[in-house]
Design a protein that fits this description.
Number of strands: 0
Largest sheet: none
Shape: elongated
Strand content: under 5%
Order of helices and strands: HHH
Radius of gyration: 11 Å
Length: 55
Amino acid sequence: MASPAYRLLGSAADAEETVQDAFSHWQAADRQRIKVPETCQVLDAAQTPASLRGT
């Protein structure tokens, strides 16, 4: 997940923060309600960069 985050953000530090944030959300998620874990993780990581960019 770090590579796509880096491509979106252009910064290794921001990419690492994004991946850590997505992992934290994953740890707190109700996994019994998640049908496709990969999709959940990718969508979470994809939404984080927008907030880091301020958009």
